[in-house]
Write a structure and sequence with these properties.
OB fold (Dihydrolipoamide Acetyltransferase, E2P); disordered N terminus; alpha+beta; 20 strands; 16 helices; BirA Bifunctional Protein, domain 2; five-stranded mixed beta barrel
Length: 504
């Protein structure tokens, strides 16, 4: 029995999967008994790939090449057969003749299953139909596939299974592979841009004794040898600013952070964050860098600066709109917070508009609640939301002309936050007061409030220059630039609950 035929349309696997796996195991046992263990080969010399066939076939035409990849289809026709294999970049067509490879080798080729990994040597040529192909001289089985891959035309369509078994998703869905190739291009473009501006890429601890730098609930762990509790980092901010104090002046890190929060189309508990800090700069400088960085990433991922996301055209080529939070709340909610004096007036406005607030919330917190309810969903084209209230920005420098607000922006595109930037607070006395307020919030039950970091305060007391800083959510940016509806589509291995029982 062979499994060359396609699975039923729309199915992720044939209904007789267990039977077909049993047959494959029998084939493996037969090969091993004959001294032809398909797992014995340690390496195979590859001289060309599908990308070479696509872009430089004139150089290869008529030459002997060696290629390797996974068998995706077979068309057996008596004394000659065609076979498609897929390598990292795409498809290669093979032409296998019994007279060329020998009768025994041809018989073994016919026994190959879809999903097997093979190495092939032969001559590159064009078929009569003009298809770039290889006329095989030898075929080597390099790895036996013991599980039946999903049907090649429809791929793996069970969304949850795609996330759980990303390896199968990558085999059968070229669009998935393309998204992750573009993700790599985005990350490379960011590094090249920052390196070109004289930034130093650094690494800071993932395990921390204080979870700081963001309003988030941390994951808690324990260091047995030191007999102490620790946290997985929720931010990169405070260690990087210590390096600014140390005189490095321009630093960045791109790495995983961990927040003990829910899972949604825009949230994964483990995600990739870029943070960068530049001495003698402010949040206006960060806005210019942000525009350059996003446009460069768009060019790297799509080739242009006008993109489509879920049917909406997004123009990244124009200067991004800038509006203060109070201006946007007035525009979309009809409430002018510049005319609201004091907490009581803010609470009355919230009550009139059905905005629920906590007793611990100040007027600035309530302004932010209005923004989240009325404004975020309307910010489709790139918009810098400027000048946040001080209550929700404990690490940010106050505006000199209005100390109730801080020099901070967030970049919103398609209703989602993509970047967050500050003129960094470098006054250690003010910073301690802000931390003390956060500590009071923690004591009242806010698990996301910042902890007091005495070592960071000590660093500030040595003197930190005026500094601009910014964080960019890499996964959300890649979502935008690959037209992906869920953050899980752009993370190789998103967080999932364990399966209730093993699959066959």
């Amino acid at each position: 029995m062979s499994d060359e035929t396609a699975a039923p349309e729309g199915a992720d696997a044939p209904p007789d999967l267990s039977e077909q796996r049993r047959i494959r195991l029998e084939k493996l046992a037969t090969l091993q008994a004959a001294g032809a263990d398909p797992f014995a080969a340690a390496r195979f010399d590859v001289s060309a790939g599908s990308a070479d066939f696509e872009s430089g076939f004139e150089r290869l035409d008529g030459q002997t090449v060696s290629v390797a990849g996974r068998v995706m289809s077979k068309r057996v026709m008596g004394k000659a057969s065609f076979c498609d294999i897929r390598d990292r970049d795409g498809r290669i067509q093979l032409y296998i003749r019994r007279d060329a490879v020998g009768e025994d080798a041809y018989a073994e080729f016919r026994k190959l299953d879809i999903g097997d990994i093979i190495g092939v040597k032969g001559e590159a040529f064009l078929t009569h139909k003009g298809e770039k192909s290889i006329r095989a001289d030898s075929v080597t089985l390099l790895s036996k596939s013991l599980r039946v891959p999903p049907e090649k035309f429809h791929g793996l369509r069970d969304q949850e299974l795609r996330y759980r078994q990303r390896y199968v998703d990558l085999i059968t869905n070229p669009g998935t592979r393309s998204a992750f190739v573009r993700r790599s291009a985005v990350i490379r473009s960011i590094r090249e841009y920052l390196d070109g501006r004289g930034y130093l890429e650094v690494e800071t601890p993932v395990l921390q004794t204080i979870a700081g730098g963001a309003a988030a609930r941390p994951f808690v762990t324990r260091h047995n040898a030191l007999d102490m509790g620790m946290f997985l980092r929720i931010s990169l901010e405070l260690p990087l600013k210590r390096l600014i104090v140390g005189g490095l002046e321009r630093v960045y890190e791109m790495g995983r952070v961990f927040r003990n929060e829910g899972v949604s189309v825009r949230h994964n508990p483990e995600f990739t964050l870029l943070e960068l800090y530049e001495a003698y700069a402010d949040y206006r400088d960060m806005a210019r860098i942000c525009e350059d960085l996003v446009r460069g990433a768009a060019r790297a991922a799509t080739g242009g600066e006008v993109i489509e996301y879920q049917g909406v055209m997004i123009d990244l080529s124009k200067p991004f709109e800038r509006a203060t939070m109070t201006e946007l709340v007035k525009r979309h909610a009809g409430v002018d917070f510049t005319a609201i004096a004091g907490l009581d007036a803010a609470r009355r406005a919230a009550g009139e508009h059905g905005i629920e607030y906590k007793e611990s919330h100040g007027a600035g917190d309530i302004l932010n609640l209005f923004f989240e309810e009325y404004c975020e969903k309307n910010l489709i084209q790139p918009t810098f939301v400027m000048d946040y209230p001080v209550e929700i920005s404990p690490l940010t420098k106050r505006k000199p002309d209005n100390p109730d607000y801080v020099e901070r922006f967030e970049l919103f595109i398609v209703g989602r936050e993509h970047a967050n930037a500050y003129s960094e607070l470098n006054d250690p006395i003010d910073q301690r007061e802000r931390f003390l307020r956060q500590e009071r919030l923690r004591a009242s039950g806010d698990e996301e409030a910042n902890m007091i970091d005495e070592d960071f305060l000590s660093a500030l007391e040595y003197g930190m220059p005026p500094t601009g800083g910014m964080g960019v959510g890499i996964d959300r940016l890649v979502m935008l630039l690959t037209d992906s509806p869920s953050i899980r589509d752009v993370i190789f291995f998103p967080t999932m609950k364990p399966e209730p029982e093993a699959r066959n």
